[in-house]
Write a sequence for this structure.
């Protein structure tokens, strides 16, 4: 079996990127972002991207790097705060935005990975979220129909990966990463640590290797703190 391990982000992305593609990018705030793969996509200059991610990074971090170079044409997200560039591009009409409730976004991605083309949810009924979408009544309650999300490429950040692509995530860095790994035609994982097959207890595997096509060792792993709050220092 061919190895899934690649020497660098650039090598792992070779032959995968094309203009106008859809990319899923893991992360929530500054936690669990594929920090090594995003700069490589930026350097490749791939443009006209539709990016599916909870948010578009923060100023100077994460997907912000692709916004700065105007490589992103559309974002499908649930949160747009903490990013002045995102706000500026959207308000000026440079960037298309499909704003999706966070739970709905997660379920749309999960549905894409599970092969479920549509589902119904109460979230967004009677709001702009439901405009143009079918609404049906179940047990006397209205539900809006949402459709799956899939991508040409999913870029995922893992804590540990074995050589077969089985993944483990750590704490809040798990976020959207496991479900995105299932919903990409090609899934590329950057892992903090790559270990031999058999190193994991099967009960501790969060994402099976069947969903993973390529793996790299992280080249960037900054683990930034988005908002640091501490109590005042007590007087001596």
């Amino acid at each position: 079996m061919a190895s899934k391990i690649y020497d660098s982000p650039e090598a792992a992305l070779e032959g995968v990127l094309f203009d106008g593609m859809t990319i899923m990018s893991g992360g929530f705030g500054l936690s669990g972002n594929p920090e090594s793969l995003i700069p490589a996509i930026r350097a490749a200059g791939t443009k006209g991207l539709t990016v599916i991610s909870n948010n578009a990074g923060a100023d100077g971090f994460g997907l912000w790097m692709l916004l700065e170079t105007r490589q992103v044409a559309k974002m499908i997200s649930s949160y747009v705060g903490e990013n002045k560039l995102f706000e500026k591009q959207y308000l000026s009409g440079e960037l298309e935005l499909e704003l999706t409730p966070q739970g709905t976004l997660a379920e749309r991605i999960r549905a894409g990975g599970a092969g479920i083309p549509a589902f119904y949810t109460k979230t967004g009924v009677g709001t702009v979220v439901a405009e143009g979408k079918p609404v049906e009544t179940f047990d006397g309650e209205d539900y809006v129909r949402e459709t799956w999300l899939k991508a040409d490429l999913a870029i995922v950040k893992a804590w540990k990966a074995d050589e077969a692509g089985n993944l483990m995530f750590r704490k809040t860095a798990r976020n959207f990463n496991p479900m995105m790994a299932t919903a990409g035609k090609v899934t590329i994982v950057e892992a903090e640590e790559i270990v031999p097959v058999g190193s994991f207890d099967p009960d501790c595997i969060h994402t099976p290797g069947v969903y993973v096509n390529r793996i790299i060792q992280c080249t960037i792993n900054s683990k930034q703190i988005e908002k640091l709050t501490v109590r005042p220092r007590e007087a001596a």
Summary: The CA atoms of residues 24 and 52 lie 5 Å apart.
